[in-house]
Give the backbone structure.
Amino acid sequence: MARRKKVYEGKAKILYEGPEPGTLVQYFKDDATAFNAEKKATIEGKGVLNNRLSEFFMTGLNNIGVPTHFIRRINMREQLIRAVEIIPLEVIVRNFAAGSMAKRLGLEEGTQLPRPIIEFSYKNDDLGDPLVPEEYIIAFGWASQQDLDDIVALALRVNDFMSGMMMGVGIRLVDFKIEIGRVWDGDFMRLIVADEISPDSCRLWDIETGQKLDKDVFRRDLGNLTDAYTEVARRLGVMPTNSGFGGKPTLVN
């Protein structure tokens, strides 16, 4: 594609102007970060895997009536998406205690929660994305009460879809985070799932062994991150089951 104007660059992705009004091109980088970017590395092939996995999940959500920003994949690292007004919140859905929740509450990692728990964090890297209650969100005008009700409903639908899909391939969906964007059709506003859904934004554990197949592999130095993401892709059928990983992933078109 021709050279494009960069709109935004984050830790894992770059957004460029899209070919049509109201669209963007989302490019997945190989960069890996953890602990609010205190730990950094470049993992060859990570961007390709996350592009394809996010395409797989977003397409599945679109097909069951959960609206997302995803339009189509352009190539191995880029996808065409709708331009949205991002609500400055990370929406975290937890099915099992892990990570910061386990530390905060003194729970053993892997403890099943009585029901899915939804948390919100304020998207601000300088502040470390702090958890915020609904009262803050409404008071500061980041979202209305109706928005929050709709966001919770969307998050739970994503959780049902993702949990079932992962369980079918022997993976436990421990938790995940999503971002929500506003799109406008004239005077009518809708909320849709945006950003990405990938092993970067989920905790995924093998149901039988407890092996981590997500970014905790990088956070905790548990092995090769690309191997973990490749295993997720292979189980979901995004990669052929008989393909090995030889540096750069070979993915199914």
In short: The chain has six helices and 13 strands.
